[in-house]
Amino acid sequence: MLTIHPILITLLPSLITAHPSSKKTPLNSNGIPPFSSLPLGEGNPYLSAWGLYGPKDELGTLNRLSPAIVAAASKSEIKTGVRVSLNWAMNAQGNESFINRGSFGHKIYPAGPYYDEIWDYNSQLSSHWDSLRHFPYVAERRFYNGVRDEDVVGKGNSTVNGIHVWSEKGIVGRGVLVDFESWRLKQLEKKNPEERFRRFDPFKGETSGISLEDVRAVLKWQGTKVRFGDILIVRSGWTVGFNNKTREEILALQRSGPISASGLEQSLPMMKFLWENFAAVAGDMPGVEANPSRSNFTMHEVLLAGWGCPMGELFDLEALAEEAKRQKRWSFFLTSEVINLPGALASPINALAIF
Ligand SMILES: *[C@@H]1O[C@H](CO)[C@@H](O)[C@H](O)[C@H]1NC(C)=O
Ligand SMILES: *[C@@H]1O[C@H](CO)[C@@H](O)[C@H](O)[C@H]1NC(C)=O
Ligand SMILES: *[C@@H]1O[C@H](CO)[C@@H](O)[C@H](O)[C@H]1NC(C)=O
Ligand SMILES: *[C@@H]1O[C@H](CO)[C@@H](O)[C@H](O)[C@H]1NC(C)=O
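^ thats the input. predicted complex w/ 2-acetamido-2-deoxy-beta-D-glucopyranose below
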């Protein structure tokens, strides 16, 4: 349930100008404005879609997960009843994380005749969804639908754009795995493979981007068709790389400077593809997108702050990739329920793929 908090009243002027109703935008057959019409509101940030679902919307592209789309996904995808978890262990990164988010604090203590425990951790540490109050348009300092810094960390404890709003219905629908890592290894078996496939290193974002052409080639190789409202899940090979490194190698990389990681490339064709198809975007890598960005914007700005599109990071896709290969099917029913913590910035994914 949403209640109008006093802080929202001070917000209203900016939210009202965020509404694009003054500009009549034609919707396509899926009920969304064409990519070419972004940003929707005059003077609004790059490619943003503020106001599409009203000035106070906090669901963003999750609005695409209509009951009809979820019901259709359950009918087309649940065939065998095989379930696969996508949750990396909460403490998988050990006592010091590669992504500089500390470690998972877990204390068990006697509480009389039984035991209790305390968890203490950064919500970015293991598999998680980023919420709409995690990442703003950096230059403009604006979050989804125009929300400001003071609404995230200011007095009054506003919970606007918090992840609890997503917990009301979860992130549920048709998941599509793009198994880039398996496809890349297949390319290496060819006679004269492109050098970039050999050099691909999930810890070198500068040279290891995944382009839209790559994504399309993987989908074609798998025989996977994308449908409107899908949840895109990309296996870049980051988990494989992480598991193949010693503790010393991981920590040496962490200490060598800013995080570098493989991921989706920030190109306009890629953004158009994401806009036209998906309700949420996730992967096994720390940031979904290639890091550092190879463009003048980050996907975090456009997806989270512009469209309200959940970004899922550090998913464990190893068992999922195995099952998809076994069933020769890279689509499945996905259910993910975020935690109900009002105002939270991210959440564990509690995700299951059901084939
Ligand atoms: C993590 O554990 C290793 C091995 O026990 C230890 O040498 C290191 O100091 C620990 N690091 C932190 C940050 O606690
Ligand atoms: C809530 O507001 C108080 C007072 O401004 C502040 O000290 C506290 O950190 C806020 N809590 C959260 C979770 O932001
Ligand atoms: C694992 O690491 C070794 C040594 O760095 C490397 O030669 C090998 O190619 C890696 N394997 C995979 C699957 O990444
Ligand atoms: C990025 O560059 C393109 C092309 O020069 C430009 O149209 C766009 O406005 C720029 N975006 C940002 C966020 O600066």
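Confidence is low (pLDDT under 50) at residues 1-22.
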